[in-house]
Amino acid sequence: MPTETVIDTTSFLGKCYIHWKTRNYGRKIEAVSLLLAVAIFMNKKVYEEELASASKYLLELLKDEGDVNNVMDYVKMKLGSYQEDNQAWLEDRQEAFNLIVKNEDLYGCMIDIFNSDNSFDESEKLFEEALKRLL
């Protein structure tokens, strides 16, 4: 019987493996996972409700729980990097703006995250207002 492998997401090789697995799902899933991570970290805190909402959104896209877990590992890895380096979050937030400007449909996943913790805080409101000006 195979033994499940636990990946240390703080190690360089663990991060490379998670990134590689996520890229294999295609550019759309990679973009969605970036948007989800940015949305979850928008108020600089990570809530279980937001993670659960992200998993639910991904399950609708991927239809396979194993695939969802792989992508959620990537989202959590991104969240860890944001906690260590605010500049990484700022860069990804700008990339999120660019992705949404190119494809407005992608904004739906961010709204789901914003609404999942039942509090629409100031940073989420500012992000939405900035997007409205761009679109």
Short description:
The chain has 135 residues and is mainly alpha-helical.
Sketch the topology as an H/E string, one letter per element.
HHHHHHH
What is the CA-based Rg, rounded? Answer: 15 Å
- Helix fraction bin: over 70%
Unreliably modeled segments: 1-7
| Total individual domains | 1
Taking the sheet with the most strands, its summary is: none
Number of helices, counting only DSSP H or I runs of 4 residues or more: 7
Q: Structural class of the helix and strand makeup?
A: mainly alpha
Description:
This protein is an all-alpha fold and 135 residues long. The protein has one domain. Helices cover 75% and strands 0% of the residues. The chain has seven helices and no strands. It has helices at 12-23, 27-40, 48-62, 65-84, 86-102, 107-116, 122-134. Helix 2 (27-40) runs antiparallel to helix 3 (48-62). The chain is globular, with a radius of gyration of 15 Å. It starts with 11 loop residues before the first helix and ends with a helix. Residues 1-7 have low confidence and may be disordered.
